[in-house]
Structures are given as C-alpha cells and as structure tokens.
Amino acid sequence: MSVWGRNNLKLSIFGESHGAAIGVVIDGLSAGEPIDMEELKAFCARRAPGKSSTSTKRKEADIPQILSGMLNGKTTGAPLCAVIQNSDTHSQDYDNLKTTARPGHADYTAFLRYSGANDVRGSGHFSGRLTAPLVIAGGIAKQLLRHRGIEVGAHILSVQNVKDRAFDAATVTAQELLKIQGKEFPVIDDQSGEMMIQQIEMAAKHLNSLGGVVECCAVGFPAGVGSPMFDGIENILSSILFGIPAVKGVEFGAGFDATRMTGAENNDYYCIRDGEICTETNNHGGILGGISSGMPITMRVAFKPTPSISRTQRTVNFVTKEECELVVKGRHDPCVVPRAVPCVEAAAAFALLSLLV
Amino acid sequence: MSVWGRNNLKLSIFGESHGAAIGVVIDGLSAGEPIDMEELKAFCARRAPGKSSTSTKRKEADIPQILSGMLNGKTTGAPLCAVIQNSDTHSQDYDNLKTTARPGHADYTAFLRYSGANDVRGSGHFSGRLTAPLVIAGGIAKQLLRHRGIEVGAHILSVQNVKDRAFDAATVTAQELLKIQGKEFPVIDDQSGEMMIQQIEMAAKHLNSLGGVVECCAVGFPAGVGSPMFDGIENILSSILFGIPAVKGVEFGAGFDATRMTGAENNDYYCIRDGEICTETNNHGGILGGISSGMPITMRVAFKPTPSISRTQRTVNFVTKEECELVVKGRHDPCVVPRAVPCVEAAAAFALLSLLV
Amino acid sequence: MSVWGRNNLKLSIFGESHGAAIGVVIDGLSAGEPIDMEELKAFCARRAPGKSSTSTKRKEADIPQILSGMLNGKTTGAPLCAVIQNSDTHSQDYDNLKTTARPGHADYTAFLRYSGANDVRGSGHFSGRLTAPLVIAGGIAKQLLRHRGIEVGAHILSVQNVKDRAFDAATVTAQELLKIQGKEFPVIDDQSGEMMIQQIEMAAKHLNSLGGVVECCAVGFPAGVGSPMFDGIENILSSILFGIPAVKGVEFGAGFDATRMTGAENNDYYCIRDGEICTETNNHGGILGGISSGMPITMRVAFKPTPSISRTQRTVNFVTKEECELVVKGRHDPCVVPRAVPCVEAAAAFALLSLLV
Amino acid sequence: MSVWGRNNLKLSIFGESHGAAIGVVIDGLSAGEPIDMEELKAFCARRAPGKSSTSTKRKEADIPQILSGMLNGKTTGAPLCAVIQNSDTHSQDYDNLKTTARPGHADYTAFLRYSGANDVRGSGHFSGRLTAPLVIAGGIAKQLLRHRGIEVGAHILSVQNVKDRAFDAATVTAQELLKIQGKEFPVIDDQSGEMMIQQIEMAAKHLNSLGGVVECCAVGFPAGVGSPMFDGIENILSSILFGIPAVKGVEFGAGFDATRMTGAENNDYYCIRDGEICTETNNHGGILGGISSGMPITMRVAFKPTPSISRTQRTVNFVTKEECELVVKGRHDPCVVPRAVPCVEAAAAFALLSLLV
Predict the structure, then answer these.
(1) How far apart (Å, rounded) are the C-alpha atoms in residues C189 and C175?
(2) What are phi and psi of C263, to 5 degrees?
C-alpha cells in the first residue's frame, strides 16, 4: 500500500506517472503551524527533474497545489491534500512494457500482483515520480520539525566508488546540514561532487547507470523518544525509507561497519559536555534500544543503479513466456542518487515527526 | 512497543529478563495447522544460551509452554500464547545500572523514556532474552511456511572480518538451508566457522566482544506478493528485523554492494528455466517494487558487537550527571551473532507469513 | 483522523466545506475491477444536496473526478483518488462561528482540539459535506461487492415518530434493496414517506429540525467471515458508521429490542432451506460471535436532528467565555436522514468489502 | 482478532474457556504508575462468576497473576502480561457442540471460520469468560484514569422491561459512579434491582434467559480530545464495546431517543457554570464531532439474552446438514447483564485511556 503512518500522523500517496495527477493526503498535522510555501516549493524543486545532466530530461515544474488542510498559511489540523498535475508525459514510449519485463524493474512483479490491470505508462504507480508527493509531505514535516528545533539534512555519501566526506556523527550541526541543502549538487566536498558528476555523465554516455549511498542526519531530536523492539526509531525509519524506489539497504550509526569493530571500539563512551550527557563518539547513530539518546540520529541509505538503461538487455515476454531482447525507451536518470537526497530527508523527517505527535 | 503485525497476523511480546516469565501472543494463525512441538523446541534450542564458549553462561532451558490456541497438536485459530518461565537470574549483578549508563546499552535512553521506572535487572524488557518469544513465534511461522512449500534459513556470513561463503542468491535451495540448521555453528564453510569461534574466544579472553552479519534466505516464496511503496516486502521485513536487539543495518539482494555496481552489472536478466520465468542472477534479492519475483528472497542483517564487556569503561551517572567508570558485571555473550541466526530466521519467517494470510 | 481501514483496504478523506476541493484516496482496491462511472455518479447524486424540500438549498453537482487508480474504466490496483471541486460556497455566513458555539455542533470542541486554527467556514472538515467522498468510496465498494454477489441497501426506517416498514431481516432480497435505491425518497412504504416529508417540511417551517433512523442490509455476504472480540463485523461496521456526522447509535439485528426479549424469543433456530443451513428468524442480524452466518447482515443507525436551526438559541462566546444568543445562518438540511441513506450504504459497503480483501 | 489498540496503547487477549489459562498483554502503559492490586482484584471479583442466583454456577476465583510489566507495585512501561489459570472446567458438557449449532451462539459461524479446528469446549475463545482478561486491562486503565481525575462507572439500566433510573447525564458525579461500584447488584435504585433479580430468577426457573442495557459514564474526561470522522470517541468506544460477547447495540448521549426529538429539544445549550463552559443538558453525551466537550461521556450498551437456555431448541447438525433438536448443557448465566457491568466499564476505560496516551 501507499499508506504509511503511525499513531496520529499518516500519509497516503496516490497517482501514476502518466495519469492526471499525483499527490498526497497527510492526516494528523498539528493545527496552527505556519507553512512557508516558498520554502516548500524550493524543497520540492530539489527533487524535480530536468535540471541537470545527471537527471532525466522529463521536465515537470512539480509545484504542489494545496487542496485542503491549510488556511491563511497555517495548517488547520484537518487532512492536508496536495496535488501535482502531470504534464510532460510521453506515454507511447511504454507500449511494449505491457508484456516485456525490464530487468531490474517491477514490470513483471506488478503484472503478477495486479493481474495485468496496472497502469504501465512511465511505470505507473511504481514510478520514481511518486516520490514527489513524499517530498511534499516531508517538506512540511521538515518545517514542523524546525519549529521544534530539529533539523534534518542529507548528502550524497557515494556514487559508485566516488566518496564524499561523511558527516562527523558526533558533532554534526544544523548549520552544516543547512549548508548542503543550498547546494545544487548536495555533497560536503564539492571536488568529490564534481568527480561524481563526471562519473554519472560517463555512465550515461555508455548507456549505463550508477547507484550510490545517501547519508542523512537529524540534529536536535530530543532524547528519550521511541520504544524497544518493534516500535524503535530504526524500525520506523526503515519502514518508510524502503518505500523510496531503488532503496536496497538501510543502516544506522556505524551500521555494517560496526560488525567489523570490537565492542571496545564500537561502544560510545558517555561524557558530560556543557552540563549535558552525551557520548564521545556516535557509532550508535543516536538510537539505543530503539530510543533516541539526544545525539544526532544518523542513517545511510543504499540506492541501486537505475535499472532503465538504453542498452539491449536479455529478458522475457511474460505473457508468451518467451525469451527476447529489450531496449528501454523513455527518459531516465542515469543516477537517481542526487534527486534521492531530498527524498531521504523527506521520509526521515516525516517518520521522525510521527514520533513526536 | 513490542507489538508487531500487519493485517491478520500479529504478535505481542512481553516479559523482562529477570521477571516471572517472558512470552508471546500470536493472533491470526490459520486454524487446523499441525505444530510439531519437538521441532519447535529444537528451533528454540538453537537460540538458547549456555551451550558453548561463544555464548553467555546463563543457562535457561527456554522450553515454551503453550497456554492457548492449540488443541491436539493443531492451531485452533484463536490467539496462541506461549510462555517461558525465567529461572537462572542473578539480579544482584545489576544494582548499579539504576544510575550508571553502560556504553552501547539502552540504560540511559530507557531511564529517560520510562522516567526511571523500568526494570533494569538483566536489561529488563530490553534484554536479548526477549528474542526467545520471538523465536517461538518465528518457529511456528516457519512450520506454517513449510506447509506452503517455503523454507527460511540463515547462517553467519561474517564475524568481525572472518567471512563465511555467501549463499548463491540465484540458486540456493531449501536443502542447503536445512543443512545449516542442523549445524551447531551455523555456517556454510565449517573452516570459516572454526576461525570465527577462535576469534570470539580470543575477544572474550581480552574482555572484548565481536559483531557480525547474518544472511537469511527464503526459498519457495510465491511471486506476486507484496505492494509498492510502504507495504513492500523490504519495508515489512526491516520493520521486524530492527526489532532484534543489536541490529544496526538491513539490506536486501546486493544491498550496499549494489551501490558500487553499474546498472548493466546489477540488473538481473530474465530468462526461462524449466518453463518458468526467473532471473539469471539475483541482485534484487527476490523483491522488485516491493513485490516478490519468485526468486529466493535474500537479506543480510548487521549485528553490532555486544556492548557488555568486562573492561573498565568511561561513562556517566545519569542521575547525578557525573562522569565515572564502570565495569559491567553479569554474564554476556562475547558475540551474539551465532544465537542471532535463529532470531533472524524467526523474524523473517513471521513477516513473510504475514504476507500470505 | 479521517483515515479508516483494515488490512489491505484503506480510505483517507480530505477537504473542508468551503475549501478548494474535497476528496478521498482509496488504497487496496483489487485490480482489474470495472467501475461503472454512470452508476457511481447516480449513487453520488442520491446524496447530493439541493434537490428537494427536505435538504439544504446549497447546490453542488458533486461529480467525482478520478485522478488516479483507474485506466480504461477499470481499477489499476494503485490508490484511487477522487476529487470534488467545491463551488457554491457562502463563506460570509460563518464569520461569527469563530467565537460562538452553535449548540449541538462541533464548533467549541473543534476550537479546543485545533487551538482555533481550524477552518470554521461551513463547519470546515466537520461538515456533513465530507460524506460526499465517503459516498464515492462506498459507491465503488458497492460495485465491487456486487461483482461478488453481494447487495447493500438501506432505507429510512423512521423520521421522528413516523415509521416505515422494516425489512424482514430473515427474507430480505437483493431485489428489494435495489427497488428502494431507485426511489427519490428511500422508504419501503411510500405513504409513510409522504408523512415523513410533511413532518420535515413542517419542522422546517417552524425553524426546527428532525432526526431519524436508517436501516441497512447486506444480502449475499458469505458465511464464516469475521473474527471474535475486536475484529468482529459489528466492531468494524460501527467504527466506520460513527464516522458519519450526526450518528449517535448503531445496532445490529434486533439490537436494543433484543434486550426486551427472552432467550427463547431472541434465539434464531437453525433450519435447512433449499439444502442450505440458515435460521428461521434473524434477530442476530447475520452476525454471531463477530462472524457472518450467511443470513442478511442488518443494522440500524440513529441520526440526531440537524443541530443548525434558525431559531434564537442560548450559547456562549468561547473566547470571551460570556453567555450570548445565536441565530444560525447558512443553508442546512431540516433533516439529514434522507441524504444519510446512501452514506450508510457507503460506509457499510466499504467496511464489508474490507472483510473480503 | 483479539487485539485492540490505537496509537501507543494496545491489548491482546488470549485463551480458551477450558484451556490452560486465559490472559492479556497490555502494551503502552505509561511507566511508574502505581497499581493497587487489591483494588484490581476487587474489580475483577465484580465480574467473577458463581456468586449469586443470577450467574453461572461455575466458580472461578479469577485472580490475575502479573507475569511482567510491574515492579514494586508500579508499571515499568514494558508490556504487562496478566494470566488467569482455568480451574473449574466441565469439558464433557460440550461434546455434542462439535457438530450441533446452539441457536444464538457462534458454534456454526466459528466452525466455518476455523474449518472445525476451533476449541469448542465452553465456547473456547468465544466464551464470555474471555471478558476476564478484558476486565483486568480495564481495571488497570480505570486506575490510570483516576490518577488523571477521571472516573468511569456503569450500572444496569434495564433487564428486559424492568428499568433502573438513568444517570442525569448533565450532572452525574464521580461520587455517584463510585457508590454503585460498591453494590453487589449495580443499580441506582435498589428496588428496581430487586425486581430485576426476581425477573432473572423467574426466567431461570422457566429455563429461559434475559437481556438488558448497561449505562456507562465517564466523568472528568478533559475537553478537546478526539478527532472528527473515523477517529472520534464514539468510533473508538464502539470498536471495543462490540468486542464484549452478546452486545448488539451501542449508543451515545440521547442515542436512539435523539431520533424522536426535534433539533430544538435535542440541542444542548451552552452556558457558563462556575466560570467554565458547559451545556445545560447533555444529549450529546459529552461528544461533539468525535471530540470531548468536557461534559460527562455517556453511553448505553445493549446485551441480548443469554443464548444458552436449557430448553429443547430446533437446530441443525452442521456436519451432516440435518435438522435436529438440542438441549444445551453446561452452566450458564440466566442473564449476563449484572456481570457485564464491569466489562463495559473496563472496555470504556481502556478506550478512553488510549485517547490520552
């Protein structure tokens, strides 16, 4: 389903890539919260396609239209519905997808799941375009978190083998997070960023694509929030993060690296700084026993390379069950990672807000 | 919360490490399913402590007592409650934990979350011991899955830097999964296993601890199950897997490795084998667009090193807010990974069963 | 919240009476189900205002626009979003409601709940107008139920003290239910209907309003569906029916009348009819132990009289906390019961469909 | 399912009438709340059978044993599990129920639902005995509500046609609610109570049974809690109240009586009393638009007469599909209403508490 939620905060995403519109209903926003629409549009623009060499050539302004839940610039407490009209659709590119499985795509699994009745144009409801409404929801959540002193930000940690510097998990600040959000290409080290762009352009030229890792932090999140076992912050965040198409892995704190440390190395020693309890290091990523420690909450999200590549690929016709070849048409990102950065911020922000309402 | 569930299958885990009993209520099991109690006990025994040099010396038979939901060896369809009495408790080992935070543990976050009213003895409800009821639930789920032709199995993929062979994601069989479940130390390559045991014993000797990775597969899971976005198989599995204490990362298919491949390398080409549609490779881990493809479902779960180490560690008294030193007493696993293998199988099995009822 | 759902079928309603639009997202509809849009519009028209002397003079065509989830007249399996643009709004009628509580309305409770930030125009999200999206969802559910041989229908059982004949709970047929749906004023006995209309017109003339009871049946619902305790059909139906504004009571089968019978009178004796097990009478309303028996499912829903009456009423200014008088302006139904009939059908249909997917 | 919950407060009930034990897991209780076990036992005793001429002769002490979630008389914040061992079981009374449907019971519907694998002894999980764990949960909830200044109480409003005085919905106090809880037979007017007892004894003598209505109030519940549409207080309360076996109707405030009033009669005029906003009357039962108004929350719950009567009744053998006759054996309440009073209090208290956490 495209419904996510816990307790009193829920979202329901709808739409297909080439349908009339896509959008989201958010239920449970607290009332009277001012929403800065310019900032929201700027956040959505960070995800919007068609801006650079690393993204699809489909151009969509992706300006959200608020149908309900806001009055005079503030939330009313009633469900907020935001809609984006689809415009630049080239549906004829997708005719052969009704029967031929694009490798790495959900064409075949969706065919089985929906008995062939699903809308295949532009991947329908499976399109990465459906992250646009998620970004609206997350953009609103980010503003509400900021009202509470919490900043969520992310950057590209790696594209294929090119790495950006990582955040210092123990000391990262809201200022650092905000600084990256102002960048066209969201990395800490711009030189690494340029190498990433070159790498992506090269892959595109070779009709290939790349994946990468997005690192996300939340600073200022209060300590003592969350629960053990199945309602922990990690469970909640991962349950929404895997909703972003192409995500294949999620880790918190030191994550998989922690498996290669000893306990003495991985344990974060407590100390007093400015009269407050904190930890010297932050391998735990701000979460212990599912509950926030007051340290920055850190996560890394793995994105596989875009499956749509314009090379000839071996596949099958899933109606006739015959092997065949396929050249994927349509306009695709050679690497989704740059545009995935605000998506990860959005998902994380929405999930973290749900822990506070 | 310690409730997990979706649709018509839910579980609710209760108990504290040094309380009267721990247990689980499972609601939504289909009726009339035979449960082999000997097999269930054998599965629980795989997790039980006190058996080897790599685990805690606490001895608990951990034999589940079924209070409801079964009659004449079959499920009744009513909620199934299973209880394990606690016996071998050394509560006096934990007195100082009421005020002193063990690094890497939830003592401090739990203190904040529960205003100091939580049961700290043996980590209370945060104890790894709470995976025993999860294993009961998962052991029952495994049997119900087997009735449907599905086998779930796992092994230790790595301990610190010592690696086992990985499953071949495209060809792994139920027989391979079953073979490992019969081993005392669940690895594919027993020589790697011996090196892991040595490594763990060495760490224990140095009052240190190790982490590692568990790899889990489900074979025979039908294609076309799951949903896009937030109700995908990855979302559902990760939401329960992060409920196992010490888990800091979860990945599916090629996971984080996929971020270092190109699209051409990572895409799994479709082919026809024995008249059935499948993929040549299985970097997608049996899941595309949140929906099963019919290929083996594969995941890897990162466990941090046990935080309880008997070295002197720097920490704080969170009541007086003073820095201090701590030597953790009590009996702890120098590495939880071996005992975590059935926990991962259990969590995965329960989540996968929930997709089928 | 305005989210309702269970298992794999959920709806999320949004909008305010005088906002840009109202609508609904339905997630979990099975794919490939043909939707007859003319029939859906006709069903929505049964709820639409402005048609007769018994309803508000606000005129809204209330034609649903489908934004997603349908292709070529069939469901795609993706979330279906339907929107109704608001048009005939007289927002200036509501200025004084920002501070003055209309008796019987949610003005004061909403003010507290939303700290005064809620949209009060036309009652905002509390408006009976929000049943329009519910009717869209229910209209679709009715069609899907009909594909499965199930018919849901309702009629006005009473307006104040004027009573219609009740359905014969044991023998009511789909034909009888369909016959009433074709009527302008949905009663079994048209003479009672005329008396009701007179009664309502009389109340309107005296600046007063009336309530009444809607009786609803589902015929053809399969036996053996539902669960004991909290997931029973009665729990599920009541949890959605109380979502219709002005509902103050819900009963199933003989309901409150059963409390005045003896066990010997109330028990429905089983018998064999046409080779099938059924009951001679149907005081149980087709539900025993939360599970369907195969007999018609019957319920009655109590609607209070419209609180908006154009008489001078005593009330308070909830900002200044001073007593005052109020004459409610705006256009209101002197009796909501006639227009509530499709709302009850819609809610019941959606809830019953949720039990089958 | 036997799981109920919203947001951070959930319960999961398990057990069968003649199984090893029945019980409940409550997850989400706030930590550090003192629980008076004597008071809890006294509350459970109000529901326990075998005390008087109006109840079954089965004797069960029904003393809850707390397995987890409490330490030194206070909640720990971890899931609380309470168990009651079954003792006085006469399972041989139920042998014929495996194939013969008791009129008014769930035997036949359960047989279909669980393919005949359900435990039929003493009605298994469908037994009224399963309200014992509900009463434990509700008894704890009542104490937590009392810590917050809220009192929940109920009385028998009617047995068949014998009526007790109703609470004055606008003025009822915590003292009045507490007074009734001290009575052996919970009515306001003891003379009515004696007539009810006579009526029940008479019915029992004639091998018949009676139903009735329980009225329940909550005093002190804060204003401004709840939500419109599907998360209203009425939706939430009804979704748990219909979980009590034999309940066939639920109404709030004036309920079905409101349908016979005019708007001018039913509207509750606001006024200022002691500086606070309240209503002169309370036909709205303390709930407007799903949200609490600060007035007493009032509800009435309809219980059908006990279906188990020792007369010869016509029925069918649902395995052979032949008509036959049945005399129900076993020990049954000639009227469940007196013992249902604490059950209604319990369900209401748990649901109301869930709105506050």
Answers:
(1) 15
(2) -60, -40
Q: In chain A, whose CA is at the least distance from the CA of D28?
A: A227
Task: Quote the Cα angle for C220-C172-C265, to 5°.
Answer: 105
Chain C residue with the nearest C-alpha to that of A83: C67
Q: What is the DSSP letter of A186?
A: -
Residues of A with CB under 8 A from a CB of D: 6-8, 78, 228
Q: Could you tell me if B167 and B215 are in contact, meaning their C-beta atoms sit under 8 angstroms apart?
A: yes
Distances (CA, A) of B97 to B103, B119, C91: 11, 10, 61
Give CB contacts under 8 A, 24+ apart, made by B34-37: B34/B73, B34/B74, B34/B143, B35/B70, B35/B73, B35/B74, B35/B75, B35/B140, B35/B143, B36/B143, B37/B66, B37/B73
**A175-226 pLDDT tens trace:** 999 999 989 999 999 999 999 999 999 999 999 999 999 999 999 999 999 9
User: What is the CB neighbour count within 10 angstroms for residue D74?
Assistant: 14
Structure-model confidence comparison of residues A257 and A328, the more confident one: A257
> How large is the C-alpha radius of gyration of chain A?
21
The CATH number covering residue A97 comes to 3.60.150.10
In this complex, which chains have at least 3 CB pairs below 8 Å with chain C? A, B, D
3-class SS at B185?
coil
User: Is the pLDDT reported for residue A19 higher than 90?
Assistant: yes
Is A328 in contact with A235 (CB distance < 8 Å)?
Answer: no
**What is the residue whose two structure tokens read 């790697």?**
B192
Instruction: Return the SS3 of A246.
Output: coil
Nearest by CB to residue A75, choosing from C65, C83, C117, is C117
Residue B230: closest C-alpha in chain C: C27
Candidate from C13, C251, C304 with C-beta closest to D302: C251
**pLDDT of B170 over the 70 cut:** yes
pLDDT at B205: 94
Least Cα distance to C313 among C46, C74, C101, C26 occurs for: C101
Calculate mean pLDDT across residues A55-82: 88
Please write the tens of the pLDDT for every residue from B172-205: 999 999 999 989 999 999 999 999 999 999 999 9
* Statement: residue A94 has pLDDT above 70: no
Specify the 3-state DSSP secondary structure of D302. strand
- What digits encode the pLDDT tens for the residues D10-56? 999 999 999 999 999 999 999 999 999 999 999 999 998 766 777 66
Q: How far is C36 from chain D (nearest CA, A)?
A: 27
What confidence tier does A62 reach under pLDDT thresholds 50, 70, 90? confident
The parent domain of residue B278 ranges over 3-354
Structure token digits, residue A251: 């880790």
pTM of full prediction above 0.95: yes
CB contact under 8 A, A27 and C14: yes
Q: Do A12 and C12 touch (CB under 8 A)?
A: yes
Nearest Cα to B259, choosing from C128, D245, A249?
A: A249
Tokens 């809850």 belong to residue: D64
Q: How far is C71 from chain A (nearest CA, A)?
A: 7
Smallest Cα distance from D6 to chain A, Å: 7
Chains with 3+ CB–CB pairs under 8 A to A are B, C, D
Cα within 13 Å of Cα(C87), Cβ side: 10
Tokens standing for C190? 């048209």
Tokens representing A331?
């306009």
* Residue B269, helix vs strand vs coil: coil
Q: What is the pLDDT of residues D199-209, one digit of tens each?
A: 999 999 999 99
Residue C141 tokens, joined: 């559910």
Question: What is the pLDDT averaged over residues C291-300?
Answer: 98
Amino acid at C179: K
This complex has an ipTM of 0.96
Q: In chain B, how many domains are there?
A: 1
Size of interface C-D (CB pairs under 8 A): 362
